[in-house]
Write the structure tokens for this entry.
Amino acid sequence: MIAHARHWSVMVASLAGAAVACKKAPPPPPPAAPPAVTFSVTGVTLGKAVVADRSVAQPLTTFGPKDTIYASVATVGTSASATMAALWTFQTGQTVFADTQAIAPQGPAHTEFHISKPSGWPVGKYKVTISLDGAPAGAQDFEVHR
Amino acid sequence: MTKPDDPMPDFSDVQGGSSSSAPPPATRTYTVKAGDSLSKIAKQIYGDANKWRAIYQANTDKIKNPDLIHPGQVLTIPPA
């Protein structure tokens, strides 16, 4: 009986030692650097106007029924040819407008999409979804109030 | 706020556009929207509606009748 108990105590001590040994194992090597991204979207900003470089000076997420709504898409990187698309949708999922812009950026850039509705926007929630060569690249929600 | 039982809003008069600080690719493309015509596209892209024929000639494989283009068609836009 005593020998049996001693046997278990040795096993427990060995396991504890193994656990400690695991904790003290050298840290794994740092992960390999991710592949360089050649061109990507870094942000989508909404506003009522854009400046010369197509960026929005005054970001907004709430608009009035008669506003022209701009979505400025910031990108980094280069591409010989890329197609950026904007899909504007209403809260029901209904498509409001869709547009594309072909670009060949050679560095940081802004691409703007804008929509207006002479008869006035219905009050509610909207979304603009940006894709880059068919792949989702960003989205921004906004609302139209009276 | 639109209620669930409200009729679907009409977005047929929505107007839109786009531009970029990045240069266009050597060959641009344009996706036809409802209400577009070749002259309207030429006016928008080149600032000259009379240049519609250049767009037509670059897309004769897609456009059989220059008076008939369809939303969703992707047209090649030759350099101005």
Q: What stands out?
A: Chain B is about 20% helix and 20% strand. Residues 45 and 73 of chain B are 16 Å apart (CA to CA). The first strand of chain B starts at residue 15 and ends at 20.
